[in-house]
Structures are given as C-alpha cells and as structure tokens.
Amino acid sequence: MERKFRYVWWVMLGFILILAVWKLFLPHGQNAVVQKSASNRELVVYVSGAVEKPGLVHLAPDARLDDALKQVRLSEDADLESMNPAEKLKDGQKITVPHKIVSSAAGLSTVDNPVQNGNNAKSNMLPGVNTAGLSTANSGTSGLVASSSSNNGKININTAGKEELDKLPGVGPALADRIIQYRTEHGAFVTPEDLQNVSGIGTKTYEKMAAQVTVSS
Length: 217
Description:
Elements: H1 2-25, H2 29-39, E1 43-49, E2 55-59, H3 65-72, E3 94-97, H4 105-125, H5 132-146, E4 150-151, E5 154-156, H6 162-166, H7 173-186, H8 203-209, E6 213-214
Parallel strand pairs: 1-3, 5-6
Antiparallel strand pairs: 1-2, 4-5
C-alpha cells in the first residue's frame, strides 16, 4: 500500500512539473493569439486636400505623417508649414493638407503704384503744376481698395485677407488661414453664420465676432 501511494505521489509531482514548464516557456492559448494579432495590426487614415491621390492610406502601426504624405503625393501648392511631418498617426484619422494662401497685399500695391508713378511722371513733366488734386485722387483710389473687404466698419469674410481676419475677436493667424482655406475649397460664404462651418469656430466663438462680420460685396 505504501508503495502504491508513493507511485501516485511521483505521478502527481511529474504532472505538476510538466504543467509549470509548459506555462513558463511555451507560447500558448490567448497570449499567442494576442501577440500574432498585434504584429499584424495596421493604421488606416484618410488623406485629402492639396494632394494628387486623395483617399485611404494603409500604414504600419508606428507610422508618422510623413509616411502618409509620401503615398498620396503632394500637389505643387501644398503648404506644409502649418503641418508637422513627425506627428504620430492614429487609426481612422483624417488628414487635410492645406493649400498655400496667396496674399492679397501684392494686389493692393499693384493698384496703388501706377497712380503714384503717374503722379511722379506728371510732376516731372509739368513743373509748377499743383499736384494736390492728383494726390487726393490717389488717396481716394486707395480708400476704394481698402474698403473692398469692409462695409460700414464690418469685415467682409468673402474678400478679407489674413491680416483683416486676424483682427476679429477669437481669430488668430491659424484660424484666419482655415477661414481662407474653407472659402477657397467651398466658395464664398452665403451668410455670416456659415463661419461656424469652419473647423475651430463654434457658437461661442462666432458670437464674439458676429457684430463685426458681413458677406456683402
């Protein structure tokens, strides 16, 4: 009897030893499945805006923004200054590449310069002629150009440049760029309330600027 009991004891001890080795050294069960699924995981992001091939992009789990941009090919007018190529991406993320904003300052100086040059030329050709009238006319022309983006002290959000939009309450340089980008991609604003369609402008932000904006031509 004692011999039989000893035999059973050794069998149980061997089983426990085998079970411990199996749990400690061999990949098994759920852990193996989790490790396999983690290694095969990928990121899927959507890229649009100033790119040649907008759409879904499949990337590695540790991908950066630069990896996604390489696959969609940026267009010539893409503006990367406001983006961070080193940004880590998340699955399901939407990426909009902004277009370069063409400043309206160059157009204003082009309008003013011919008049100024004309004044100088007439002054040189006709000594003694009073050019006060010409200067007044020039000032009037500049006033017309300046008022193209404002109406009764209000800023016309359909024609205002970045500097004017930046003056609105709650609007900074980055938000001014987004207003211009939205206007470029979707066309002119129909009503001032349409500003709330721009990313970053909610109801409270719009209420701060409502009395200072217009869409009149």
